[in-house]
Amino acid sequence: MSALAAVSTGEAITFWVLGPLAVIAAVMMVLSRNAVHAALWLAGVMLALAGLYAAQDAPFLAAVQVIVYTGAVLMLFLFVLMLVGVDSSDSLVETLRGQRLASFVLGLGFAVLLISALAAGTDGGDGVGLEEVNAEGNVIGIARLLFTNYVFAFEITSALLITAALGAMVLAHKEKGPESLNQRQLSRARFASGHPHPLPGPGVFAEHDSTATAALLPDGSEAPGSVDAALSEAHTGDTGGSVHHR
Questions:
Q1: Which of 31, 129, 147, 196 sits at a 20 to 30 Å CA gap from 155?
Q2: Which CATH class is domain 8-87?
Q3: How many CB atoms lie within 10 A of CB 19?
Q4: Rounded (to 5) percent helix, strand, coil in the chain
Q5: Contact by Cβ (8 Å): 210, 240
Q6: What is the pLDDT of residue 231?
């Protein structure tokens, strides 16, 4: 009895620690205007859920929550955001008419469904404990239910995920317009501009594009060794500007 009470106390402490953290992270995810910040808050929600799964003797769900959702899906989402870039002003534009109202209705329906499921699971009926459910192992028990009672829902979910992946690829694909230039055209335009050489790097203020022009030190004097001796001899007649290094 004492061991059971200790386990119950540990589960309660874990819930009251991770539960508020998950709620706070979820609220911050919704309120964040930056997509990257929202994704990081979502990672906090997923890690808190993984801890709650582990406290409820569901190690398989806890591992999947961390490895698949937090470690793979969410990190991929972050990489796409960093590569593509999302402006906060673009996210506020309503591209589809009525999408805010539809999102509110769907969210309300999902909340009602979730509350009804929780109420059905905690109505005090004749249920079995976690020890009996995990008698043959947590992974084996989940697999048995997934591929017997819920196999149709599992296949529908996989089909939806494949459809979503294909739709994302189609939406992200962009055809090159007629205004795009090939490598030869870009090279010709570069030489025609009068500046075929690369531009100076960041932090360099260039008044002259010649490599025979000496760099200047902070006191205004020429830096020794900044120009090769052969170039300085060939460039004695040049009185152009110089290169200042910030």
A1: 129
A2: mainly alpha
A3: 14
A4: 65, 5, 35
A5: yes
A6: 65
